[in-house]
């Protein structure tokens, strides 16, 4: 017997052609055609190439560190220890309440000098003996200041993502695992982690895409990313239209590609969960 018509299938089970993706592909084709027929676009693209590597480097490193810090604060907030829970809640609420650009300036011009002074104070007994040279604030690269600021900013958001994933796991399964004699680490590894990942993945991937866009803020510190190089090139050539077309195109390629990858992983996890059942 033939299955039900696609007309009567739930909307989530029907194949819907991604017209938005077709429109995005057409925009990319138009930009690539401009590369072919316009020498200015090729020159601008060549000038911004090094900025792509800087953007990806800052994003990947900051997001990796933010993930480590975020999961630590998520575990602290879900802990039964009131002291750890209050510390994690304080950190998350304070950091989330500060705009990223303000946090970027604060870390770059307040936090970094304080860190240098603290390090010099700790090593002062050794520096007076001539064994170690004191650190100068000029040696603290602005790229690393931006990475630290993005790490702190996104660790608070990721902590809430991890916390939601952990709390979404049925407590009965956790209690059953502990009753069977599993340690906390094995319970997290075999019970909590795999189930939480399915809940975490969509917002986790969205935060990674958002960090790629927010990495443009590091141009305010003079870090040579895509935005900063585009700003310098357009100011020297007065070709603002062409330059920022390329800047937007590069960000779109990165963000749309990663968004599609996250959606594919999400669908793959859904299929694998159905197979497990």
Jot down its keywords.
flat; MetI-like fold; mainly alpha; 277 residues; 78% helix; disordered N terminus; 10 helices
Please give a structural write-up.
This protein has helices spanning 19-37, 39-77, 82-96, 100-122, 124-128, 142-167, 171-179, 184-214, 226-237, 240-276. The protein is mainly alpha-helical and 277 residues long. Helix 2 runs antiparallel to helix 9. The longest helix is centred in the first third of the chain and has 39 residues, at 39-77. The relative contact order is 0.13. The model is unreliable at 1-6 (pLDDT under 50).
Q: How is the secondary structure organized here?
A:
Elements: H1 19-37, H2 39-77, H3 82-96, H4 100-122, H5 124-128, H6 142-167, H7 171-179, H8 184-214, H9 226-237, H10 240-276
Helix pairs in contact: 1-2, 2-3, 2-6, 2-9, 2-10, 3-6, 4-6, 6-8, 7-8, 8-10, 9-10
Number of helices: 10
Q: Runs with pLDDT <50, length 5+?
A: 1-6
CATH topology of the domain at 52-223: MetI-like fold
* The CATH homologous superfamily of the domain at 52-223: MetI-like
Count of DSSP strands = 0
pLDDT average, as an integer? 84
Strand content: under 5%
Helix/strand-derived category reads mainly alpha
Shape: flat
Distance between the termini: 25 Å
Brief summary:
The protein is mostly helical and 277 residues long. It has helices at residues 19-37, 39-77, 82-96, 100-122, 124-128, 142-167, 171-179, 184-214, 226-237, 240-276.
